[in-house]
Amino acid sequence: MSDSNPSRTGSPVWKSLETLIALFTIIMIAAHLILRFGIVSSDFAQNIPLWAVLALGGTPLVWGLLVKMVQREFGSDLLAGISIVVSVLLDEYLAGSLVVLMLSGGEALEAYAVRSASSVLQALSKRMPSIAHRKIDSQMDDVPLDQIAIDDTLVIFPHEICPIDGIVVEGHGVMDESYLTGEPYLMSKTPGSQVLSGAINGESALTVRAEKLAVDSRYAKIMEVMQTSEEHRPRMRRMADKLGAWYTPLAVLIGLGAWIVSGDPVRFLAVLVVATPCPLLIAIPVAIIGSISLAARRAIIIRDPTALETADTCRTIIFDKTGTLTYGEPHLTEQICATGFKPDEVLSLVGSIERFSKHPLAQAISNAMQQNKTAIQEATEISEPPGQGLQGIVNGHSIQITSRKKLLKQQPELKDQLPSQAGGLECAILIDDQYAGIYRFRDTPRTDGQSFIDHLSPRHHIHRTMLVSGDRESEVRYLADQVGIENVFFSQSPEQKLEIVNDETTRANTIFVGDGINDAPALVAATIGVAFGQNSDVTTEAADVIIMDSSLQKIDEFLHISRRMRNIALQSAWGGMGLSMLGMLLASAGYLPPVAGALTQEVIDVLAVLNALRVALPPKNLIDFKPGSSA
């Protein structure tokens, strides 16, 4: 239903009242039908429940609509309010009660479906710890975050969320920063490493020194940006409002013209009865609800029904990188071995000690061993001293895995022997203190990424495709080249992402696709925010659409469901209004009295709703691109 009046729809009290009115109306209509088809033959007794509906439910609704009329807001529901009054004057109490149910039920359903800013901010707040473990000498106490000062020493236990931005002073482990930075890997933490508030600690306790107050931390800044973007999000005019903006005054003018020309006020009433905008009030919500159901069966959760109405009007789509156009996990992509070393033997030696490591790249090496069916050898003397890499003994060979920088510090004469540095992550390998090779890793692009991007313009009229990521330039440009995106932004903070989305949304309706907490402000600011998976409560609360299976094919399905819903809803609305217009002309000429007009409108309503119900029937195919090939 209409949300063009913020003073009415924005109030939780009003939404609660409309829910109560809808429930009360259903009960009273059921009571009327029981009395009518039961043993009670008195019209007076049968109508008591309907009078209660019109008095207790219709009065506040009509009053709210009168306020809208004074404010010169002519939505589809305004004509319904006039119809409530007309139904009372015509003694058509059941028709009036049904209109009350249409109005209150539509608002109640929308209030339930549409997310609010408070839910997003609440999810952000819940995720952060309320206390921190502060260490003074050998004493450790739990204190509220607002009591943490710069240079305080804190202990972060395994699996806890880091409460502040700081520097590791003791301990060795990993942290999951993907929610904040967009980097898809667990990040190794040793003394001197930076930690970010909101990151999830790994298996080892870390001691850190606070560099910022909690209110100035990275996570707090994201909350601040989240709140700002929600407060400044523009309201979208609903489909029914746009159509009702001209339909309502036209119907009233036809009715008044019939009254003036004929001198018979009954014709005015007859026109309004025929004009009751049920195709707008019922058919469009039916199409939306049917599409929400169809999407849910395909693992697509529609949190804001407006997304279905507006997706087909979006002309710009903006992607985060990690987890959307990539799989969100590193893979071993190159094994560059030095002269005299065989790739299979090096992988066997390296993998045999990496399986004992917590380093972000260890799993990628283990996966490569499984794919190549490489033998695992017995490893001893495994050690991973802070900042020194991984070391061990395998089958009598000393193995060291370190970084390019540390390798050149140990053996500067290797500078000319090493391959040039490329994008992505890498590690250097020493076997028996001799340089053995470089392993390179990348976050693998989705196999259907290029074909999906290629088909957006011809199939969905997307004129501008963008890649906006917090990752480094080399990684982002590598992915952009792989999938065919020219508009690239890298190393972007949540604030910068928000600024880009806001700027693009002023030019055209936008879709933003992301999966991390750092994407939440952009998800809210875009015309439609699409979240991949359920990596974070914050992300799913901020999004309008949630893709449960994290698949680009599901985005395509959503776009097609939206277009199909819009087409069928408009068919029902235009068809219903066209028939209603014909009925209004007949009523204005005196050929359709009020009672016959009411019956005619019921037939029109049934036809419009039956057409709208088609939307819930799944079509044969909702994907129009071939994964792995260009469109």
Given as residue ranges, the uncertain stretches (5+ residues, pLDDT < 50) are 1-14, 112-118, 232-237
**Nearest-angstrom radius of gyration?**
32 Å
Average pLDDT score: 80
Main sheet makeup: 7 strands, mixed
Multimeric organization: single chain
* DSSP, total strands: 22
SS strand fraction: 15-25%
Helix content: 40-55%
Helix count?
22
Trace the largest sheet across and list its strands.
10-22-21-20-11-18-19
**What is the 3D shape?**
elongated
Secondary-structure content class: alpha+beta
In whole angstroms, the N-to-C terminal distance is 38 Å
Description of the molecule:
The chain has 631 residues and is α+β, with helices and mostly antiparallel strands. The chain is built from 22 helices and 22 strands. The strands form 4 sheets. The protein has a 7-stranded mixed beta sheet with strand order 10-22-21-20-11-18-19, sandwiched between helices. Strands 2-1-3-9-4-7 form a 6-stranded antiparallel beta sheet, with no helix packed on it. The protein is elongated. The protein starts with 5 loop residues before the first helix and ends in an 18-residue tail after the last helix.
